[in-house]
Amino acid sequence: MKFNYSLIAGAVALACSAGAAQASVTLLSDGFEAAGSPTNPPWQSFSSNAGGIVQSSVDPYAGSYSLELNNTSLGAADFVKAQQIGSGVVNTGDSITIAGEVRGSLGVSGDVQVVAFGEACAPPGGCGTNGSTFVKSLAGTLNANSTVWSPFSYTFTINGTPVGGLTVQLSAVTGAVSGAFAHGFFDNVTITDTTASAVPVPASIWLLGSALVGGLGVFRRKTIKA
User: Fold this and answer.
1) Positive or negative, the Cα torsion across 117, 118, 122, 128?
2) Residue 153 and residue 148: Cα distance in Å, rounded?
3) What residues contact residue 78 under an 8 Å CB cut-off, 6+ apart?
4) Taking burial as the number of CB atoms within 10 A of a residue's CB, which of 13, 171, 199, 214 is the most buried?
5) What is the rounded distance in angstroms from the CA atom of residue 63 to the CA atom of residue 34?
6) Model confidence pLDDT, tens digit, residues 7-24
7) pTM
8) What is the pLDDT of residue 89?
9) In the predicted model, what is the mean pLDDT of residues 20-45?
């Protein structure tokens, strides 16, 4: 009776390939439904005009609330910032995707944007950018009807060393031009690291692989003839 070595080889290959498995890690799901949003952690609010950033109940995409940015100041940026998310998870070379829904209206030189960068120092407290700052304009994504939500997705690769993880800003930006304004709504925003570190392989998998490899020699020596 001959033993089928291909079964053992397949099991060993499976055990080895498990070490290369990758994880997709959600770093943040917007949190705009939480009481006190958008000033609830991890979001911080920075507005150039009173009442320019609010938790809005007007036609949210999902749930009861969305984030509203209404920038009527000239040459300014109103934004909410999630600082140092994914610290210890995000690494150089990781692919980050920021996705969600957006709607709104823009005046001359107005824009709504997603801004992201790797943090140069560990929590607590950010100290600036390490590597590139990634900026995505969503002006072309907005529907002509300001009440209609449109999906957006922005993917980039971290090229610095994100010692403190990732900082993301959702912004309404204006130029220093008369009549400029930017009125945007964000909802269902997710921030995902699609190439986080390899999934750890359980020790039992490697023990199984070693046992199977060792078994090849045993079976080779004790072949039973029918």
Assistant:
1) negative
2) 17
3) 46, 47, 48, 49, 52, 53, 69, 70, 71, 171, 172, 173, 182
4) 171
5) 11
6) 344 444 444 444 444 579
7) 0.78
8) 93
9) 83
